[in-house]
Amino acid sequence: MAAASLLSSCAGSDATRPASGHRGPVRAPSPQGRQAAEHARLVAAAERWGLKRVPLTPPPPPAEKPEITARAGFEVSHQEDWDLPPVFTTIPTKRKIVFLTIDDGSEKDPRFLKMMQDLKIPYTAFLSDYLVKDDYGYFRRMQSYGHTLDNHTLHHPYLPGLSYEDQKHEICGMQDIMKKQFGKRPTVFRPPYGNYNQDTLRAAKACGIKYAPIWNEEVYVDHWEYREDDQKMRRGDIVLTHFRGRSDWDGTMIDDMRRFLNKITREGYAVARLEDYL
Ligand SMILES: [Zn+2]
């Protein structure tokens, strides 16, 4: 329910509101009326959070999921014949959407949860246990709002420097923690720093991982970094930012999200949910 409501178009979102409080028979508002009311709510939320424009609503999830393969140059040997999880930076789509992914987990700002709820922005969190274990409850709340939690290892090591067995421990160990704390083993894993070798993908597969997305842009509180030489965003790009606050950089998660949302909205992109395309 939470996941569905998060992504529902303007017209559908009234269904998530409690029906209590009505006195006597109330005629259901027309779809247009609901849409207008939801749009007004979003306009107010955007203003409240200091955005320059109202974030765009993403299209509904695709009826048919795109085929995801390793990005050219990002494959390892035996990528295809051993059916190893693909590493990719962009989802193949013609839609004007990007995917927001947020890593690590040190900053646990309750206002960030509220902001993304108010604005209905979906995102995927890649968690590293050593940073989240002091407050699993924060991430459980995030999950209850419909966001997906994925694997980012136990201790955030440089994986290619470890043996196959040690890499497997980092990935499978985090799968166990996630099952215990959040109820399921993810099928999506991101190697720390985006660094991996063939052992990483073999270990990830052995731990139940099917996809290893990295990113095509990284957002910081004060600048963007692009992977592509032309320094441009593309349809379907996976965007990375981090759970960081004033102790890590010169601003809050709210400032970071404001920068992200203002830019993508200005360029005509909506934020879609990564798992809808995997
Ligand atoms: Zn990380």
Automatic annotation (TrEMBL):
GO terms for biological process: carbohydrate metabolic process. Residues 1-15 have a biased composition (Low complexity). Residues 96-278 form the NodB homology domain. It holds the Pfam family Polysacc_deac_1. GO terms for molecular function: hydrolase activity, acting on carbon-nitrogen (but not peptide) bonds. Residues 1-39 are annotated as: Disordered. InterPro entries: Glyco_hydro/deAcase_b/a-brl, NODB_dom, Polysacc_deacetylase_ArnD. This is Polysaccharide deacetylase.
